[in-house]
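Notebook p. 47: complex prediction with NAI.
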Amino acid sequence: MALLTGKVALVTGAGGGLGRCHALALAKEGAQVVVNDLGGARDGSGTGAHSPADKVVDEIAALGGKAVANYDSVASVEGGERMVKAAVDAFGKLDICVNNAGILRDKTLAKLTEDLWDPVVDVHLKGTYCVTRPAYNHMRERGQGGVIINTSSTSGLNGNFGQTNYGAAKAGIWGFSRCLAIEGQKAGIRVYILAPVALTRLTADLAGMGEMKDKLDPALVSPLVVYLASELAKDQTGTTFFVGGGRIAEMRMVTAKGVTKTDDGGLWTPEEIAARMSEIVLPG
Ligand code: NAI
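Predicted complex, structure tokens below:
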């Protein structure tokens, strides 16, 4: 039996790039899939198109799988609710929610006007909230557990030039997911965070990506999504994974051993902090 036989998955932004690969990989393992995609441009502009989601539904059908399309924006509460309803209407339930939809509007902070900030935070961070909440509540009400996989980025977790908007949203997704992993434990709902790297339309014009074409196939990211969605991963809720180019590695927020001042009521002077800084920061 395939790993996800009998499971129902929703993948947002699944009309292309990583989301398409995740949807196909989940379907190949037996999951029935809601393929969500608004069909907009790389920067989120335009009125949207049905064709990207429809094409992926057709690809899944051609493999002998089952899928339905949804064209809502992840950035609206009603849109998120309709995606979960689409899963319930078509397949009776939702077990796996992969928040993947994304856009870019890169500029350094000096030039980062509100029209470049709001849509990026709306699609990534608010979008993760809008879709996850109805998915999570549905899973809780069913009482059969579930899996939520949220897409962050090294741009948010480590930082990157020209992406304060995107980095803030992606780091926000990380914090959201870390909190939800704790909240979801009682209901058996597992939550994971991805920091992927792949050559897609989102990254095609970034320096050096073209030469990495063969190594950064987005399909190389999806086996981790399938693993996390399956029962094989049941012990790692809350984990963050870097994944891409054949490499998978856990990423963690770490706290150094640090130094505790015990005299003077724990009140440091700036000079004392300067003198002990090598013990306060992490080595290396
Ligand atoms: P992509 O541009 O190929 O795919 C994103 C998809 O999301 C598109 O099909 C687009 O139509 C859809 N989308 C955009 N706004 C939407 C909305 N409001 N509602 C529904 N769908 C919407 O990009 P890619 O690279 O596949 O990105 C997927 C995710 O992975 C994004 O969250 C991105 O930030 C993240 N990511 C990608 C990396 C990479 O190296 N490609 C690196 C780090 C993170």
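Notes: The mean pLDDT is 96. The chain has two domains: 8-253, 254-284.
Next step: compare against the earlier run before touching the bench.
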